[in-house]
Amino acid sequence: MNRSSVTGALRALAEKKLVNYAPYDLVTLTPEGGRLAQRIIHRHEVLKDFISRVLGLEERIAEENACRMEHEVSEPVLDRLAQFIDFIRVCPRIDIRWIDQTCTFCRGPGTPKDCEKCIRSSLDRLAKKGERNGKTSH
Questions:
Q1: How many angstroms separate the CA atoms of 96 and 55, rounded?
Q2: For 130, phi and psi rounded to 5 degrees?
Q3: CA Rg value for the chain
Q4: How far apart are CA 38 and CA 34, in angstroms?
Q5: Domains and CATH numbers, the chain
Q6: CA gap 127, 34 in Å, rounded
Q7: Could you give the CA distance from residue 24 to residue 28 in angstroms, rounded to a whole number?
Q8: pLDDT tens digits, one per residue of 32-73
Q9: Cβ neighbours for 125, distance < 8 A, ≥ 6 positions apart
């Protein structure tokens, strides 16, 4: 980006009351610019978190795709993704194997013993998480 492009972008942002801009002076965000920046950061982080933690894709891929998706994804979809991420972090019954760097899904019929081990492992992790957060289990 050349200097005139940057100047033009700063003037456009200043006209929208998103930045405080004067030539050769410090550029700062306005309160509205700060709110918008925080919203964009939140959108990016939710999408990146979903792609890397839930889908198990590498950081670079998560970063690149989050950058593209954050401009188009609707608020209801973003909110639901954030709720889903929170849910799988705390639900003791969720044991999503692909999060643990295995990149494999828990498939197949399995046996009740397999399910018991999975649930026990999930409960152990939840208890440890609660201990780290100062919470006690029932």
A1: 10
A2: -65, -40
A3: 22
A4: 6
A5: 1-90 (1.10.10.10), 94-138 (no CATH)
A6: 38
A7: 12
A8: 999 999 999 999 999 999 998 888 889 999 999 999 999 999
A9: 92
